[in-house]
Design brief:
Shape: globular
Strand order of the largest sheet: 2-8-7-6-5-3-4
Order of helices and strands: HHEHHEHEHEHEHEEEHHHEHEEHEEEH
Radius of gyration: 21 Å
Number of strands: 14
Mean pLDDT: 94
């Protein structure tokens, strides 16, 4: 077969590849501590959300819905957005998608033409790059690892990267893979750059409900000048432990919704009917369950930071999401600044991650997949016992 050039431009998802490797080992009877994927291992979807889905099935909500989502869910989403200060959005601005990833794909496909420039803040979630390439876009990347993943110190670098040729800047706060929450001062700096160069900003807020130490993330679309140039994306996978339900949404200016609706309608038609009804329940009646999970993640974060400190490994403390970046270069200073950490023919972090899963049977994701060599990502959406076991195995195999 003669494959399309767009497919040759991208690599398989690194997180999926590592997870598949872990699954293969487990099928062989190996006990793997899988810290690779952003799934939520030991929290189930809240019972009331599952019951809402069952009730919707019993009520016959099994057919097609309006393409952009059922009115009741769109209304609940708008209420949530307004609660976050995003008062510019109405139901006409919302598209409900089968997963947040589909929403991002639709937005990139709608806005990017051949060669159009997208700026990413590294480390950046692996699928951003692939989606840009599938849209025939070009990439510029701004490194924040040298600043312990804070954005404010990187604003000068960002200002140099963004130009009048830039179409989109992606902001992910709280972020995957670093867990950083960008300060208001940093977001105001982004706003100034976006307004100066007439850039559209995608604000990926999928982890917005998962923050620590009393940190309250700001939606960049609430800032003056950003109301009509921000596309706000969120979903149900992370905050509500609904990863397998595949339900997300984006809110955008109405003209973009009209255009992206063509892609949405011709690709997925609509999100699953009864799942949308469960989404209403998740938005309206799960505050206690969300807080229980968020608090558990905060405890796990603190435990991991302390455990690594016991092994003389200093790690930047995440303020949100459920990921931690571990430096694996020869020393921490090298990891913070290196762009070419290597071990033989492989980047150092790739070799480290392969050794970790093969010898210690701990699955992590190389930082190179996120544009940040010299680091690996650990997901701590797992039990404290398994997290502790993972660190102990890494230490026993001289990987810390």
């Amino acid at each position: 077969m003669d494959f399309a050039a767009r497919v040759d431009r991208i690599e398989p998802s690194a997180t999926v590849a590592i997870s598949n490797k872990a699954s293969e080992l487990e099928a062989e009877g190996v006990d793997v501590v899988d810290l690779s994927v952003g799934d939520i291992v030991d929290f189930d979807t809240p019972e009331n959300v599952k019951q809402a889905a069952k009730d919707a099935l019993d009520a016959g909500h099994t057919g097609y819905t309006p393409s952009n989502g059922i009115p009741e869910l769109k209304s609940a989403i708008v209420d949530k957005l307004h609660g976050d200060g995003l008062s510019q959005y109405g139901t006409e601005n919302v598209v409900v998608t089968p997963g947040g990833k589909q929403g991002l794909f639709e937005v990139f496909q709608t806005l990017i033409d051949d060669g159009d420039e997208v700026v990413l803040l590294d480390p950046a979630w692996v699928s951003y790059e692939a989606m840009v390439k599938l849209s025939d876009g070009s990439l510029k990347r701004v490194d924040t690892a040298q600043y312990d993943f804070a954005l404010e110190p990187a604003l000068d670098d960002l200002a140099e990267a963004v130009s009048d040729d830039t179409e989109i800047l992606v902001v992910n706060s709280p972020g995957n893979p670093h867990g950083a929450v960008y300060s208001d001062e940093a977001l105001e700096g982004v706003r100034d750059i976006a307004v100066e160069h007439d850039v559209t900003v995608i604000s990926d807020e999928i982890y917005k409900e998962i923050t620590y130490d009393g940190v309250e993330p700001t939606s960049i679309g609430t800032l003056d000048g950003m109301e009509d140039r921000t596309i706000t994306l969120n979903g149900f996978s992370k905050a509500y432990a609904m990863t397998g339900w595949r339900l997300g949404y984006y809110a955008a200016p109405e003209d973009l919704v009209d255009q992206s609706g063509k892609i949405h309608g011709h690709s997925v038609t609509c999100a699953v009917n009864f799942v949308q009804h469960a989404g209403i329940e998740a938005l309206e009646n799960t505050d206690e369950a969300v807080e229980e999970m968020r608090s558990a993640f905060e405890d796990r974060r603190d435990m991991l930071v302390d455990l690594f400190a016991e092994h003389d490994k200093e790690v930047p403390t995440p303020e949100g999401a459920f990921y931690l970046m571990l430096p694996v270069a020869d020393d921490d200073s090298e990891a913070r600044s290196a762009s070419d950490q290597s071990s033989g023919d492989q980047p150092r972090d790739v070799a480290w991650a392969e050794e970790a899963i093969e010898t210690a049977h701990v699955a992590t994701v190389p930082g190179s997949a996120f544009g940040t060599p010299g680091w690996v990502r650990l997901a701590y959406a797992n039990s404290e016992d398994r997290l502790r076991e993972g660190v102990e195995r890494l230490a026993e195999h001289d990987l810390l």
